User: What shape does this take?
Amino acid sequence: MKKLLILTTALVATGYAASAQELNIVSWGGSYTVSQVEAYHKPFTAMTGVKINSIDADNPATPLKAQVEAGNVSIDLADIELSDAIRLCDEGLLEPIDPAMLPPAPDGTPATEDFVPGAIQDCAVANIVWGTVVAYDKTKFPGNEPSTLADFFDTTKYPGKRGLLKTAKRTMEMALVADGVAPDKVYEVLGTDEGVARAFKKLDSIKKDIVWWEAGAQPPQLLADGEVVMTTGYNGRFFAAEVGEGKPFGTIWDGEYMDYDLWAIPKGAPHLEDAKKFLAFSTDTQRLADQAKYIAYGPARKSSNALIGMYKDGKTEMAPYMPTNPENMKNPIWTDPTFWADHDAELAEKFNAWLAS
Amino acid sequence: MTDATSQMITTADGKPLKAALAASLAVRRRRAFLLVAPLFLFILISFIVPIGQMLFQSFYNDTFSKNAPALVEWFSTHPEGSEIDESAYAALAADLALMKKNRSAGEAGTRINYDVSGTRSLFTSTARGADKFQPPFKEAILKVEKKWDDPNVWRAMRSASSPFTLDFYLAANDLTRDETGKIVPVAEGQAIYKKLMGRTLMLSLEITALCLLLGFPIAFLLSSLPMRKAMLLMILVLLPFWTSLLVRTTAWMVLLQSQGVVNDLLVWLGLIRDDHRIQMMYNETGTIVAMTHILLPFTILPLYSVMKTIPPSYVRAARSLGATSWTAFRRVYLPQTLPGIGAGGLLVFILAMGYYITPALVGGADGQMISNMIAMHMQKTLNWSLAAALAAELLAIVLIFFWIYDKLVGIDKMKLG
Assistant: This one.
């Protein structure tokens, strides 16, 4: 029954046929896909002659799952989130990745040591690290700019509305860290009933001032409209508003929430060899550094950091905007996909019950 | 003349008239059927089959049972209340080894995790070393993960060992089972669906009432104005109707947000202070305002089409017979518009019950509806069975209202245009 449903979805999802010497790569669209096309796809096509079809999806894991389960795979490579990478790998829907196929750093450091911890998974390899951070409107706090996650929850010192992501994931961890929990203990605390209550208590303290957002495009908009004075959001989006559009935004890097995006190859990919070749090529040191030219997401390799140069406008130094910059990465919360696989449903229900109360 | 009735009437070529008529009717029927066949097939494939499949998932979920054959076997031979002994752990060990081989521990664990939070990793982590378990299995498994001792986990596995289950309907009503299998309400901080279902009903009724209240005078005006002016007014109704839903929702955001047009105007007029701007968005008010506006044409159009057919002479006759204008409206005009009120109201109510994008964008925390939870379970937690159970309940409520409407007004009286 489910097969049939998936089959119909897959049929709708795949209007294109596979042929030789091309790769079908699914990613998230927008400026993110543009950065991949510029940094990975074009040089790869120039080098190998393999044509790349870039396909956009709301969440590339969804068509990937549908296609593999229906046994009709046209995707060669997908850019997916860590939790999806682990889940799909557990379910046997992804090709295992041998870390030996990844090129070493220019100085000879093997890939396994060059990538940031957790970036090489059994069936997926991270290309970027992105942060969920707090951004604020500089004009609202002249001479007294907020600098910590605790400031975000302090409406007496920094009055005004706050924007927060309307999901349990990220929001609850950030509340706990703001309440004084050490980032590496956050999942230990959140795993207990007292920890959950503590997170809600912290959120309660600003509940009447919260404007909830869901889509990544909303936070910079809310901030620019003056609807909120501070909001959580994705660092790349804030960068685009701050540098690209010249908005007076500032970023609080304290307690930034770190997530990966990873390349994964579905079981039964029509061009397996080329997909593997592309995966190795696109995650080498130079390519990851190149991508940072187009978007403010951090490269998953340590060796790439040194090669990061200017933004495409030719005058903005990218390094200060990178979530992986050591200056910014002083108190990061690293996401724990295993915890969320276990507690996603339960905490989502509790979170929604709290919202409605 | 008398034997003419007994004599068979034939066509010119000698066939009995009855048979000839039947044959020509059959041809017409076939042709009619062939004409609607593409539409019928389309509806069947794109509407009825997917919805049926979705609803089927609300009580059928085989992700655990198909991956754990030994446990399914053990549960079927050991009734509820049996001691979880070595044989049970042996079955568990066999299934975990199978899950490791098939890489299905995550899938099976996810099903149990819906019931008992925190068990998905129990399956994946235990399955990792499952091919090395030696008897006694109970000891070996408990040594790896103590949590297997939890009777709740075994109760959940028993419940999931049959692919047919009512678990998801329990969850959709904020119910669960305790360790003995008795149905109990979930912890207070976790109960959400009944509350949201109630709110969805209330919001939908409020929006329906508002739409009728606002739509009735407009429809009346439309039907009584001369043609040229009515056309102009009609365009004003239809233009927003043809505009994208998202555009209209975001337009309301621009108007209503605290730095928006309406608030700016009020501040400029000096009616409110700059630091006391009214919160009209990201709450229930925002949802009601935006949805009423979006759904308004669905009441105006059926009302208009009904009012157009009511001859103005009826009201004039009532007036000339001495009725006040209010009596004439109440006793003569209003009853005749009932089919339009019914159609418009029902249409808006059903649409409002399932509304999703507008509350998601402007609803904030207290303007959420049950459809937002269905979307969350479809897209984020991937608990499609629970989403299906919630959707089935929503469908049932709509059908109940449809039935009430049929009893009160009669569905044959409904006029959609």
Observations:
- Residues 7-19 of chain A have pLDDT under 50 and may be disordered.
- Residues 337-356 of chain A form the longest helix (20 residues).
